[in-house]
Amino acid sequence: MKLTLDLFKIIEKYPVHWGDMDSANHVNNLVYLRWAESARIKYFEKMGMDTSFSSVGTGPILGWQECKYIFPMTYPDTAIVGARTVEITEDRFFIECAIFSERHNRIAAISKQSIIPYSYGELKKVEMPDPWLEEIAKIEGS
Amino acid sequence: MKLTLDLFKIIEKYPVHWGDMDSANHVNNLVYLRWAESARIKYFEKMGMDTSFSSVGTGPILGWQECKYIFPMTYPDTAIVGARTVEITEDRFFIECAIFSERHNRIAAISKQSIIPYSYGELKKVEMPDPWLEEIAKIEGS
Amino acid sequence: MKLTLDLFKIIEKYPVHWGDMDSANHVNNLVYLRWAESARIKYFEKMGMDTSFSSVGTGPILGWQECKYIFPMTYPDTAIVGARTVEITEDRFFIECAIFSERHNRIAAISKQSIIPYSYGELKKVEMPDPWLEEIAKIEGS
Amino acid sequence: MKLTLDLFKIIEKYPVHWGDMDSANHVNNLVYLRWAESARIKYFEKMGMDTSFSSVGTGPILGWQECKYIFPMTYPDTAIVGARTVEITEDRFFIECAIFSERHNRIAAISKQSIIPYSYGELKKVEMPDPWLEEIAKIEGS
Fold first, then answer.
1. CA atoms B38, B43, B48, B53: torsion sign
2. What ipTM describes this predicted complex?
3. Contact between residue C99 and residue C37 where contact means Cβ atoms under 8 Å apart
4. Which of B105, C106, C113, D4 has the most other CB atoms within 10 Å of its CB?
5. Is A30 on the interface with D (CB under 8 A)?
6. Cα separation of D72 and D29, whole Å?
7. Are A45 and A83 in contact (CB under 8 A)?
8. At A45, phi and psi to the nearest 5?
9. Do C67 and A69 touch (CB under 8 A)?
10. Domains plus CATH for chain B?
11. C116 → chain A, closest CA residue
């Protein structure tokens, strides 16, 4: 299925810095994951999480991520990043970030990340907390 | 004199990424200079320069920069960056960037940079080109 | 199978910078991919590629990458990164990078990347060039 | 006076990453300040400071920095960074970092940074602590 912005409840915009480009004259591959990280953090905030990560309760850990590079962005441009939960299992959930080039009006990259609930009190992975499941359902409207 | 945004003809806004903070829980000192770089590049564009830096004509080289850190920014926030030329000598000019925290409505850092005209054809520093002087005068309205 | 350094013909070492840590007090997830990029570039050099990417011949493009985060590294430490080709198809090959923490003597992350041969002369993807196949075989000793 | 490595008691080496270069095909201006930061942190460690910055005692704050760019570094290369205290006042001290290109055997940049002692208990700047003065004297051998 074609990824379009209307599939995403959370949409963020980030300007491309000239310094985001590497010596191949394209936005460096890491920068897309910086944008995905920022959109992911925004998603956590919408879920009501404390993103100062200073609590001793249960917080999110990045377990894995991937990124498919489709179209090389360049300066100047603005990245439009949509984030949504695409899968939930017993002990983690997966956020997909679609990164669009505003200037070229096309998708530039798709990233997927697994988020693991971790108890900083017990120092171990835990099951998906009920409040997380409820907030995700609220955000995604399902 | 107090630096206020109305002193600047070129003003840019950059969102603070969560990942811009280092383990001291403040925006890392390098990030302010990324913002200053982006505002400087925007200034070059307003001067009519080719910021792909692919020409063989005369281009700008960063000779020196400084940054005074006044107030530590944190995520979430937006940096508002004003850029202006504050000094011109025979063989360089100085851009000042004032970086404001939008959330705290106060100045966070002041950076100054020396820009040296360099001839990529002759591979040497050259005098300030007349078109540069004219464009700076046009931007600054003086 | 357990990943150990003796599986890798190309091994690089990168010091952890204090500034590589984010406000969660761990090396930020992007930094592992910077190390993987540097090891990948080293692999390209061993294959005899021109890593200035200035030629008009066939060069490598990063099509996709993933990273599994196993153990959170911190400053001070040194990353030991092994790189090897783990799969070759008709139009791409896959490099695996295993990232070890020298201080803790254990694996911290595993990254995998797909590398696509791209003709800058014809501006399109091409089949795996024979010299690439030969050089990979030479490196991997197979 | 010409800066040479023998003037420095603390000398660190950092490899240039390919990704440290920007689209002007030089190591980006920020990267020199990353190296200076890492060398500065190493200097703090030699002074016996807790660089996790988690204590409630007196810690160092970066008040200002400058960098003079002399020679543009490129990948591949190794930065050799010497750090030393060049000035002490009542309420701060100044570290100078000289950055040399190992490949070209010449100085590439000189950075200077002001370090301000800050009491996290009293939340205010304080005078240079006696242990800091003693440790600096011990390091510099003066």
1. negative
2. 0.95
3. no
4. C113
5. yes
6. 9
7. no
8. -65, -40
9. no
10. 8-137 (3.10.129.10)
11. A69
Among D22, D29, D73, most A C-beta atoms within 10 A, so best to mutate, is D22
> What residues of chain D lie within 8 A of the CB of B38, using their CB?
none
Secondary structure (H, E, C), A39-97? HHHHHHHHCCCCCCCCCCCEEEEEEEEEEEECCCCCCCCEEEEEEEEEEECCCCEEEEE
Write the CB contacts of B103 (distance below 8 Å, at least 6 apart in sequence): B76, B77, B78
Alpha-carbon span C142 to D17, nearest angstrom: 29
For chain C, say whether B19 makes contact (Cβ under 8 Å): yes
SS3 at position B89:
coil
Chain A interface mutation, best of D16, D21, D23, highest count of A Cβ atoms under 10 Å: D23
Which of these, B82, B114, B81, B79, lies nearest to B95 by C-alpha position?
Answer: B114
Give residue D1's pLDDT: 66
Rounded to the nearest angstrom, the minimum Cα separation between A70 and chain B is: 22
C18 has a chain B CB within 8 A of its CB: yes
Token pair listed for B52: 């792909």
pLDDT tens for C89-117 read 999 999 999 999 999 999 999 999 999 99
pLDDT tens, residue by residue, A64-80: 999 999 999 999 999 99
- Say yes or no: D65 contacts chain C, CB-CB below 8 A: no
Q: Which of C29, C53, C64 sits opposite A68 (nearest CB)?
A: C64
Average pLDDT over residues D34-42: 98
Contact D18 A22 (CB under 8 A): yes
Q: Is D69 on the interface with B (CB under 8 A)?
A: yes
d(CA C76, CA A90): 35
